[in-house]
């Protein structure tokens, strides 16, 4: 998989995509993540990529030309499955969307910034808009890092134990059950006996019961939306 991230602040995301699991995936040749500074695609002699909005609203807007030039340069080299824009009003990012994107080959992620981007970019160049939550960030760089991390870790071979990714929270619409490790008792606090029993069927039943109970208690919204198969139809 290849992910190209377009941003006005590549330094804001550089560390995130070059450490831990994302770096491991790149070292293994399973993923490529490239950062592109939008200022490299402007014809403005001061390397500006933003301007005042028509109509007099406050704030600055990313111009269409550098974005169009950047996307066109990338598309001249390969085909892209999605051109994603990180936006507060995009489709809310979740595990099913991460799963779907992990099956793609090439992605472009355009990081929102300033007051936003010229709307013609969204109308003509973007194929998918994604939000990572109902709040506003300084820029879409952190959102792009979240998307890249959630997607790349699902690629076969990235995580040593692939079953670990399959048992993460949200993969089956439930929160993950509690996990424990040695020692079995600490300050009188004991690990549940069933986990020490060696009886796999009982352990699996316990884990499912715990996942369901934790989801009902902590995230009941996941249960009410479990049957909504079309919520991320944009991917």
Describe the structure.
With 235 residues, the protein is an alpha/beta fold. The protein folds into 2 domains: 2-152, 3-Layer(aba) Sandwich (Alpha/beta knot); 167-224, Trp Operon Repressor, Chain A (Orthogonal Bundle). Helices cover 33% and strands 18% of the residues. It has helices at residues 11-14, 20-27, 64-75, 95-101, 119-124, 141-152, 162-166, 200-218, 220-224; strands at residues 2-7, 32-37, 50-51, 61-62, 82-92, 106-111, 116-117, 128-131, 185-186, 189-190. The strands form 3 sheets. Strands 2-1-6-5-8 form a 5-stranded parallel β-sheet, with helices on both faces. α4 (95-101) links the parallel β5 and β6 (106-111). Mean pLDDT is 90; it is low at 229-233.
Question: What order do the helices and strands come in, and which of them pair?
Answer:
Layout: E1 2-7, H1 11-14, H2 20-27, E2 32-37, E3 50-51, E4 61-62, H3 64-75, E5 82-92, H4 95-101, E6 106-111, E7 116-117, H5 119-124, E8 128-131, H6 141-152, H7 162-166, E9 185-186, E10 189-190, H8 200-218, H9 220-224
Parallel strand pairs: 1-2, 1-6, 4-7, 5-6, 5-8
Antiparallel strand pairs: 3-4, 9-10
